[in-house]
Write a structure and sequence with these properties.
By secondary structure, the protein is mainly α. It has 19 helices and twelve strands. Helix 1 links the parallel strand 1 and strand 2 (about 40-45).
C-alpha cells in the first residue's frame, strides 16, 4: 500500500504597516504558484501584532493588491491579534516544559552585557543570567519587575537547513541568543508568533525574502523544542532598483496598487514579477496557467533581481496587443470617463483595436481614445494657418464632394484619398495632415482612413463643411 504524499501548504504573511510593496508581491506570487503547481493550499496570514503601525487601511490595501493580482488564498486571511490566547497557551507550555524561562534582566542590564561582550571582541548577546541550569543558583527576583520570557536556545552544535533557493545554510548555536518570546506585558514577539502559526497551520514550505535568513535558525530551534515538523525554507534575494540599490520609492511606484492606477494589467504584472528571480528557459511571456504548470524552486535565482521599468512597459504592451478588444475596451472605459470623455461616443471596441498597438499602458490607451470620446475642439488658429492653406482647402473640398457618394468603410476611404492624391498630384502628407487638422484638430493620429471611418461620415462632412 502506497502512502499519499502530504498536501503542500505555503503561506504569505505580510505585516499591515503599509501597502503591499513589489518585493512582498513577488514573494506572495512564488508561494502562490508553488502551492498551485502542487495542487496544494495557499494561506494568507496578516501579522498585525505591531499595534502602533498596523492599520485597517493597510490590511485592506494588502487584500486589494492580492485580489488585483489574482492570488486569492485558499485559507485566511488569519490575523495574529485574534490568536493571542493560543500564543500565551504555548508560552505557558514551554515554561512548564523547561524550554523557556523567565528573565528579569532590565533592557539596560542586557545592553551592558552586550557592551561587555563587544569589549572582549565577542558577539554581543544576552549572557544567560536568568537561564536555569542544573546546579545553578539564580539571582533574587527584583521586586516589582515583570519578566520577559526567553527561549532556551541550544548552546552547542549548529542549526542548518537545505535552503530551496540558496542551498545548505548553517548557524552555530553559540551565535544565537536566548530569544525573547514574550514581553513583560505577556504579548508574544514576532519570531514566536510565526513559529506557532506555521505549526498550527501545517505550513510545509516557507518561501520568503532573504532578509529573514537570520530568523530561520531561531524559528527552527523553537519548532524543534515544540516537537513540530519543520517546514522547508527558501529565501529569495531582494529586488534592486535600476541603479543597483535596494528598490525604494525613489525608483518610482513600489505600491502594487499604484501600478493599477498607472494602467498596468495584472496579468502583465504577474508575468513580470515572476521573471524577477525565476525563469523557464528563455520564455519572457507566459500565462498565469503556464506559470503554475512550470513553477519550481530549482529555477529560482540565487542572486538579486533588477527592477526595469522599460521591460515592464514592454511586457505590458505585449499583453495589451494580445488582449481581446472588447475586454480591453471594458477596462479602458472607466479611465476615459475619469478624463471627462464619453466611451459611448464611438464604437469603443473598434477604436481600441485601432489604438492599442501604440499603447504601453491602459492610461495611454485611455488618453489616445479621447480623440474619439471628447467633444470636438477645432484646431488652433496657428495650426489652421499652418496646415489649412488655400491649396489644402481645395483638396479638402474635393475630398468632401467625392466622399458624399462613397461607402464609408476604411477601404473605400483609403481608395478615395488615393484618388484625390493622384488627380491633384499630391503626396500623402499634403492631404492626410490637413484632413486630421480639419476633422480632429490635431496633426498626429493613427491611420487617417481608419480614424475617419470611426468618426463617421456625417460628422466628417460636417466638420469639413465648416471650414
Amino acid at each position: 500500500m502506497t502512502s499519499t504524499p502530504a498536501t503542500i501548504r505555503t503561506r504569505f504573511a505580510p505585516s499591515p504597516t503599509g501597502f503591499l510593496h513589489l518585493g512582498g508581491a513577488r514573494t506572495a506570487l512564488f508561494s502562490w504558484a508553488f502551492a498551485r503547481h502542487h495542487q496544494g493550499v495557499f494561506v494568507l496570514r496578516i501579522e498585525d501584532t505591531d499595534l502602533e503601525r498596523s492599520t485597517p487601511e493597510a490590511v485592506q490595501a494588502i487584500l486589494d493588491s492580492m485580489d488585483w493580482l489574482g492570488m486569492q488564498p485558499d485559507e485566511g486571511p488569519f490575523y495574529q491579534m485574534q490568536r493571542m490566547d493560543r500564543y500565551r497557551e504555548v508560552v505557558a507550555q514551554m515554561l512548564q516544559a523547561g524550554t523557556a524561562y523567565h528573565c528579569y534582566s532590565s533592557p539596560e542590564e542586557v545592553e551592558a552585557m552586550r557592551e561587555a561582550a563587544r569589549a572582549q571582541g565577542l558577539k554581543p548577546r544576552y549572557d544567560g543570567t536568568w537561564r536555569p541550569e542544573p546546579g545553578k543558583t539564580l539571582p533574587p527576583v527584583p521586586p516589582g519587575r515583570k519578566p520577559v520570557v526567553r527561549f532556551k536556545n541550544p548552546q552547542d552544535g549548529a542549526t542548518g537547513w537545505n535552503d530551496m533557493v540558496k542551498g545548505p545554510i548553517a548557524f552555530d548555536n553559540t551565535e544565537l541568543d536566548d530569544l525573547i518570546i514574550a514581553r513583560p506585558d505577556g504579548t508574544p514577539t514576532y519570531n514566536f508568533c510565526v513559529v506557532v502559526d506555521d505549526w498550527d497551520m501545517g505550513i510545509t514550505h516557507v518561501l520568503r525574502g532573504d532578509d529573514h535568513v537570520n530568523n530561520t535558525p531561531r524559528q527552527i530551534n523553537i519548532l524543534r523544542a515544540l516537537g513540530a515538523t519543520l517546514p522547508e525554507y527558501g529565501h529569495v534575494p531582494m529586488i534592486l532598483g535600476p541603479d543597483g540599490e535596494k528598490l525604494s520609492k525613489r525608483h518610482g511606484a513600489v505600491n502594487v496598487m499604484e501600478y493599477d492606477a498607472q494602467g498596468y494589467l495584472p496579468e502583465a504584472m504577474v508575468n513580470y514579477l515572476a521573471r524577477l528571480g525565476w525563469s523557464h528557459g528563455d520564455d519572457e511571456l507566459f500565462t498565469r496557467e503556464q506559470l503554475v504548470q512550470w513553477f519550481d524552486t530549482r529555477h529560482l535565482s540565487k542572486s538579486a533581481s533588477q527592477w526595469d521599468p522599460k521591460k515592464l512597459n514592454w511586457v505590458n504592451a505585449q499583453y495589451i496587443k494580445q488582449m481581446d478588444n472588447a475586454e480591453l475596451a471594458a477596462r479602458v472605459a472607466p479611465r476615459i470617463e475619469r478624463r471627462g470623455g464619453n466611451p459611448g461616443a464611438v464604437d469603443l471596441v473598434a477604436a481600441i483595436g485601432l489604438l492599442k498597438d501604440r499603447a504601453e499602458t491602459l492610461e495611454q490607451l485611455a488618453e489616445a481614445a479621447l480623440l474619439f470620446c471628447k467633444p470636438f475642439q477645432p484646431a488652433s488658429a496657428e495650426l489652421a494657418e499652418q496646415h489649412l492653406t488655400p491649396a489644402a482647402r481645395e483638396a479638402l473640398a474635393d475630398f468632401s464632394q467625392r466622399a458624399a457618394g462613397t461607402d464609408w468603410t476604411r477601404e473605400a476611404i483609403s481608395a478615395l484619398i488615393k484618388a484625390v492624391l493622384a488627380d491633384r498630384g499630391l503626396k500623402m502628407p499634403q492631404l492626410a495632415i490637413p484632413l486630421r487638422v480639419a476633422v480632429v484638430g490635431q496633426t498626429q493620429t493613427p491611420a487617417v482612413d481608419a480614424v475617419l471611418a470611426l468618426i463617421g461620415k456625417d460628422v466628417v462632412l460636417q466638420r469639413l463643411g465648416a471650414l
